[in-house]
Design brief:
CATH class of the largest domain: Alpha Beta
Strand order of the largest sheet: 3-2-1-4-5
Structural class: alpha/beta
CATH topology of the largest domain: Nucleotidyltransferase, domain 5
Distance between the termini: 38 Å
CATH superfamily of the largest domain: ATPase, nucleotide binding domain
Helix content: 25-40%
Largest sheet: 5 strands, mixed
Shape: globular
Oligomer: single chain
Number of helices: 9
CATH architecture of the largest domain: 2-Layer Sandwich
Strand content: 25-35%
Order of helices and strands: EEEHEHEHEEEHHHHEHEHEEEE
Length: 334
């Protein structure tokens, strides 16, 4: 069986998708990163190998997500693509007539405008948490309920309670005030969902031509309260596709399949058994600009295989040669 693997490494989760030659999903994984992207990638590959039949041949591997260059170096990717492209490819494959893609993850959100099956415009929010999944996680913890219960109770809430706040701090303050006034928790929870949607539309969606059909992707799409609030704000139905949480990984696998057919090259994949490889992690402060980002450096057997963590792509996806004039070693972790 010939297979194609897509890996999407984000700030909160790592996603895997395996497609066959007909581009049908064979297996997928959705794992929390927990600040350990390399270890979670190794764990995910080992888990996938146990799920897949023994007679497989991996013909192509692609990496995407905010840590795509790190992922590409660790797993041996044939293709590294940005998450906008991968999310769009998977969405169009799922709903060919889609015109708007909303993707909300744990720490960022995206709005992608599709016209005639192609990306016509997009915007991203990687700074403010008020329009992302971490906003709901924080409020669920404040209410002492699970995120699953928050989703269930949001569907029971009435849509009249307004919780103000353009940021997480102000929203939490207003939520506490509403509790003190004796408002129903279900109404408060749904008010939080409406707040997240308003923040998303006024920030990431500002000035964008949002037209139906609208697809809702990402881990936050598990929360049906957000879907309900989104449909109320947009005044149109919102489609949540199957496997919405791994759409970036699916898009990456679709793209590498196309790439393999075009170039007919050999696969660079390092295999599912890299869980035994030992990596050493160090960090240094980049002095190329006043931002002075802390860059994480991953080495295997004394050879640097990847760098990541900066606000720009200076250290990602480049030929790695050390030492570098801008490198100032800060700390070392084993």
């Amino acid at each position: 069986m010939d297979l194609y693997l897509g890996v999407d490494v984000g700030s909160v989760t790592v996603k895997f998708a395996v497609l066959d030659t007909a581009d049908e999903l064979v297996s997928c994984l959705y794992l929390p990163t927990e600040g350990r992207p390399v270890e979670v990638m190794q764990q995910g590959l080992a888990d996938l190998r146990r799920r897949l039949p023994p007679d497989i041949a991996t013909k192509g591997v692609a990496a995407t997500g905010s840590a795509r260059y790190l992922a590409g170096a660790i797993i041996g990717a044939d293709l590294v693509k940005n998450e906008i492209t991968c999310q769009a490819v998977a969405a169009v494959r799922s709903v060919p007539e889609v015109k708007t893609i909303i993707e909300i993850g744990g720490q960022d959100s995206k709005l992608i405008i599709i016209r005639d099956g192609q990306v016509a415009d997009f915007s991203m929010n990687t700074v403010c948490a008020a329009g992302t999944g971490s906003f709901l996680d924080h409020q669920a913890a404040r209410l002492h309920i699970s995120i699953e219960e928050l989703s269930r109770r949001a569907l029971l809430g009435k849509g009249k309670l307004y919780i103000s706040g353009r940021c997480t701090v102000f929203a939490e303050s207003d939520m506490v005030h509403k509790q003190q006034m004796g408002h129903n928790i279900d109404d408060i929870v749904y008010g939080l969902c409406r707040t997240l949607v308003r923040n998303f539309l006024s920030d990431t969606g500002s000035g964008k031509d949002i037209r139906p059909p609208v697809i809702f992707q990402g881990g936050v799409a598990f929360n049906l309260g957000i879907k309900r609030a989104m449909e109320e704000e947009l005044k149109t139905s919102v489609i949540i596709p199957a496997h919405h949480e791994v759409m970036g990984a699916i898009g990456a696998a679709l793209l590498v399949h196309e790439n393999v057919k075009a170039v007919q090259g050999s696969c660079k994949f390092r295999g599912f058994d890299i869980s035994g490889v030992k990596y050493k992690t160090t960090s240094f402060e980049c002095k190329s600009c006043p931002t002075s980002c802390e860059i994480v450096k991953i080495a295997e057997g004394g050879r640097v295989v990847a760098c990541w963590g900066g606000q720009c792509d200076l250290w990602e996806g480049r030929e790695l040669k050390f030492p570098h004039p801008s490198e100032v070693k800060k700390s070392e972790k084993h």
